[in-house]
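hey all, quick one before standup. I had two proteins in the batch that finished overnight and I want to keep them in one place so we stop losing track of which output belongs to which input. First protein below, input sequence then structure tokens straight from the run.
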Amino acid sequence: MSKEAVYVGSIDQGTTSTRFIIYDRDSRTVGSHQVEFNQIYPEAGWVEHDPMEILESVRVCMAKALDKATADGHNIDSGLKAIGLTNQRETTLIWSKSTGSPLYNAIVWMDARTSGVCRKLEKELSGGRTHFSEVCGLPISTYFSAVKLLWLMENVDAVKEAIKSEDALFGTIDTWLIWNLTGGLNGGVHVTDVSNASRTMLMNLKTLEWDQPTLETLGICPKILPKIVSNSEVIGDIATGWPITGIPISGCLGDQHAAMLGQACRKGEAKSTYGTGAFILLNTGEEITMSEHGLLSTVAFKLGPEAQTNYALEGSIAIAGAAVQWLRDSLGIIKSASEIETLASEVESTGGIYFVPAFNGLFAPWWRDDARGVCIGMTRFTNKAHIARAVLESMCFQVKDVLDSMHKDAGEQGEVKNEKGEFLLRVDGGATVNNLLMQIQADVMGSPVVRPADTETTALGAAYAAGLAVGVWTEEEIFASEEKTKTATTFRPKIGEELRKKKLESWCKAVSRTFDLADLSL
């Protein structure tokens, strides 16, 4: 494609906010807009989103980003070639195909209401918690869409009736958005992509299709499920009624898979995204690597209907940036998230404080839904700066736990190292602007952390997938990571091995104190 004005838009629908970013052919942002939306907490451990509010947030972001880019002299109307979509994964909803209305709020990925469903399945199924792991790569956990769908089927009358009358459509957020963007009641396309489907517990990792035996075991009707497509292909055009119309949606990936593509992670390379949670993925190439150390086997990306599938090992951490929000919104220790770096920098260490944010249990590599948050080691010497620093350290320790498991699963041959023999962790996401957090991460790991100039790689990855499908970029251009590293910032460890080892031992002691606390009396 020639060097004329060419643009690709990217919808980035996250857990706490939605954004729309318009990129030019050189992957530079020419217009963007972001809005937060409401988090709904009906009960302790429950988290929901209003699907209609999410739709409206996409509409607003599209319109505002378009206005900003146009005001800066960019002719988006004639140059926009494609739209990519990336989204919070696992979040589950069911809607009526005859009215287009949701039958219940979306149940968010971190919601823990399904622990009873999980315990029941573990007891009834011969393989226990790992009964489906060989097929889908995932353990039975509150995290994944299938158990959320089972809860809706058991507890919401409108859902039961709609499934019975064949009026129900199931989807994760990508499916809901695409169906509405491509016409909704008037011919909306009911699809999901391989990366989002790989997080439902219902897709066979080898065939990339819904697994019939799993559906039968769980009693899920296949008619409610969307068609599975690759991450880079034309899905459908945006319908009238949206700020942008007639443009193809040609890329779709779950947020962590999009970040892998945005970071140009080849086989043996890993990235960690710091958002509401933290998510570490290692590209394992065209082979599925089954974890023996508490990680998930998942799809990395499939860049076209006929393209080879790249797989990944993933460690998912439920609470990362959300702990900073908790300090701000629930405790009032800081007024804005950006203040935590300044506050935590007031002290040289945590003063022996260890904070484990197991608010709704612990994900990888522990998988303990009976865990609850703890802050240990407090004395009269402890102040809010120590607590703030302990919150930052908690993110880094959790990432280190996952990386240790990755090293064990992948082995020396499964990881790419630089000329100095160092394993580099690529990082992205909103929290990575915090230099102290990045330095602590390098100290805790004992190896370098590389932060790109543009840390919002999730939206960029979705744009790449969309642009690739319509010829804006080639795979070679997307994976030309040498250019990206020229403008990156590298953080190297500054603490000694002995101190690192002591701190990790103390962290493990703190984690062990979180177990079996879910039934503490109110």
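OK second protein, same deal, sequence then tokens:
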Amino acid sequence: MGFKHFSLFLLPLLTLTILSGADQALGSDQNRHVSHRNRTALAAAGGVGKVALKGRKQTSGCNLFQGRWVPDASYPFYNSSTCPFIDSEFNCFSRPDKQFLEYSWKPDSCIIPRFDGLAFLNKWRGKRVMFVGDSLSLNMWESLACMIHSSVPDSKTNFSKRTPLSNLTFQEYGVTLYLYRTPYLVDISKEDAGRVLNLGTIEGGADVWKDMDILVFNSWHWWLHKGVQSQGWDFIRNGSSLIRDMDRLDAFNKGLTTWAQWVDQNVNISQTRVFFQGISPTHYMGREWNEPRKTCNGQMQPLTGSTYPGGSLPAASIVSRVLSSMKTPVYLLDITTLSQLRKDAHPSTYGGDGGTDCSHWCLPGLPDIWNQLLYAALSM
């Protein structure tokens, strides 16, 4: 009798536990496999919570951005001589060493899928992808164009490159890759005083960002530019104040907060997946990796391990903080540390623009891995 009564008492508890576990597994599986195709339906049914992608670095239990670089002879994805979309500033064809091309990114806790351009085109058939930001957005946009082109080299394309809006359409699939150049994301307007960087407004061109299926935003490098010629503005408008300059990290925080408010108010999350590209580092100061007299020039291999001797970037902390405050789920492509390890991957003196470029990246090269991680975040 004792065993019978104990069983009758235990059975409801076991049933509740099983059902609860099933609900959790289903919820986890739904969040893990939300594709663009079923996203609207799930959202309408209440199946996609706003936290599903909010500032998330992990996909299916995997931190894509914690890992190390490993030699891999199966890379690169394409050859610069066969891609018609690469600007001369990113084309390192004259660089005598080629070892920097043959590395893959290996996360500590999982294996990321290899990029498949044809699969990307089929999955996102009829869709629109837009990169919004500065020349690092250009770097990533051209990279993705080359990666897809290498998978379907005979596919007909429409290519238009203008300022601020450029586009590339793979006609057979109806997939269009857009680039919108706006280095600060917020507005630069003409006033009586001159060119004014307005930290509180996003109006010029922002309507073009709406109704995209994938948005990848980026900003930071121009916030460091000094001098009216290179920075592109004469004054900063901070609220009601018009000032000559201010702390650039504070200005970046205010500008990015304005961007976040625009996204929260204007992006339809049942249609659009939103990403932030993350802070791309530079390698002008060798003391950051314990070579005080060096720059990226002459560097031929990545740093080993998974941490950067120079530490984290303050701008990256601002990005994380702003994204975590948003209502809209924004996936952070947290490419900062893995890019810091690639002191060897810049054009240095081999880009077409002359000088030593330790800011942008060779194509093929590191931005291809950024796009592979974007592909993984969309696929896994």
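Flagging for whoever picks this up: The longest helix spans residues 2-32. Confidence is low (pLDDT under 50) at residues 1-54.
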